[in-house]
Specification:
Helices cover 42% and strands 23% of the residues. The protein is elongated. Strand 2 and strand 3 form a beta hairpin. Helix 7 runs antiparallel to helix 9. It starts with a strand and ends in a 15-residue tail after the last strand. The chain is an alpha+beta fold.
Length: 267
């Protein structure tokens, strides 16, 4: 017995060639399509033993399985970019008839969502406080106890505590300044995008970057403005350096802007 994994939804059309050669899916299956209400869904048959509700929950706790499956899902969705609305990872239906029912019941909503992402891709921008470069700028600011108006104390313990307090205050100011600059970056890029959103900052365990993430933005950009958007990121990177490190990734399928009314029902 198999269930049906849903990857993406697109307008149906006379040209079926884009959908005939797709990458292997999450179960190493060959994805295909089903149609209803002048819409087309990219789906793949997956074994119920591995993809019913309980089995899928177990797999989601296995980092190796999860990474491989997420990569496979992304490969299939990426092959449809520009033509289809991506569906979130883990959307499973009991059979293809359930998918057809979804397309029929939500046809108007799906068409509206498709119109919103047509000829558009998602770009990601992350901004980090660059601690090393930020500290380098302030290292010459003087130690606690130096200069006019600073308390002077020859006791080693007091001097140490003053240095610690000065370093902490300096770090807090640098973080606050960089956070304000990250907000300016997001607002400037939002003006160039059709839509934008901010995701929660990712922890160091997820990024492999020890510096704090201050912006995790996603931007839906029309293809005609992609070069302009990239130039704007480069300009903002230069303007807000060296303390703020700005990174651009993309283009991606518009995952952050795909409000498809779906729900897995494989349980």
């Amino acid at each position: 017995m198999t269930y049906t994994w849903l990857y993406a939804v697109a307008p149906a059309g006379p040209d079926a060639s884009p959908w005939q050669v797709l990458p292997e899916g999450v179960a190493d299956e060959h994805p295909g399509t089903v149609e209803a209400a002048d819409l087309l869904a990219v789906v793949g048959p997956v074994p119920d033993a591995d993809f019913d509700t309980d089995a899928l929950q177990r797999h989601l706790g296995d980092p190796q399985w999860l990474e491989r499956a997420v990569r496979a899902h992304h490969r299939v969705v990426s092959a449809t970019v520009g033509r289809a609305l991506p569906v979130r990872f883990g959307t499973v239906y009991r059979d293809e008839d359930r998918v057809r029912a979804l397309l029929t019941a939500h046809a108007d909503e799906i068409r509206t969502a498709l119109a919103g992402i047509a000829d558009r891709t998602e770009w990601g921008v992350k901004a980090y406080l660059d601690r090393a470069r930020s500290d380098g700028e302030t290292d010459g600011a003087g130690e606690a106890g130096d200069g006019p108006g600073r308390p002077s104390d020859d006791r080693p313990g007091t001097a140490y505590l003053l240095r610690r307090r000065t370093a902490r205050d300096r770090a807090e100011r640098a973080l606050a300044d960089a956070a304000g600059q990250a907000r300016q970056v997001h607002l400037a890029l939002s003006d160039l995008a059709d839509r934008s959103t901010e995701h929660p900052p990712q922890p160091a365990e997820a990024t492999g970057v020890r510096d704090p993430m201050l912006l995790n933005g996603a931007y839906l950009v029309h293809r005609a403005r992609e070069a302009e958007f990239a130039r704007a990121v480069a300009g903002l990177r230069e303007r807000h350096g060296p303390a703020l490190r700005v990174e651009l990734t993309g283009p991606w399928p518009p995952y952050s802007f795909a409000g498809l009314p779906t729900g897995g029902d494989a349980g």
